[in-house]
């Protein structure tokens, strides 16, 4: 019908929005990860070289896998990263006490929240590609 959106167009728009949000969140998360690493380095008195090295690398998407498989691989890595971050936070809180939260602790929580947000969007994209 004229003037009405079809389900396909709306679904495509939803996928584009989810993809855009996921990409923007990933860029922001990468920046915040660098800031968090710098705060941790200063807190633990590590030399500057520790913060300059890339501690985590993600392989580029494989041309031999379809989009859904590459997205699943990324989502799986994000799930593992989220679990590791939650364990690290719990361990730090347990060993160092819950005490007053400084900039490091606030950024750590913000990263965990943004990672959850990114996981949510990659999950929506996975469902959309099925």
UniProtKB/TrEMBL annotation:
Alphabetized GO MF terms: ciliary neurotrophic factor receptor binding
Biological process (GO), any one: negative regulation of neuron apoptotic process
Superkingdom of the source species: Eukaryota
PANTHER family named in the record: CILIARY NEUROTROPHIC FACTOR (PTHR15196:SF1)
UniProt protein name: Ciliary neurotrophic factor
């Amino acid at each position: 019908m004229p003037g009405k959106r079809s389900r396909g167009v709306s679904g495509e728009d939803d996928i584009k929005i989810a993809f855009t949000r996921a990409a923007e969140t990933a860029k922001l998360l990468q920046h915040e990860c660098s800031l968090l690493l710098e705060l941790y380095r200063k807190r633990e008195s590590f030399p500057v070289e520790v913060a300059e090295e890339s501690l985590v690398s993600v392989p580029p998407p494989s041309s031999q896998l379809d989009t859904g498989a590459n997205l699943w691989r990324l989502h799986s890595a994000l799930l593992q990263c989220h679990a590791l971050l939650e364990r690290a936070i719990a361990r730090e809180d347990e060993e160092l006490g819950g005490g007053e939260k400084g900039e490091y602790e606030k950024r750590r929580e913000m990263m965990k929240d943004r990672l959850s947000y990114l996981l949510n969007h990659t999950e929506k994209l996975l469902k959309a590609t099925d």
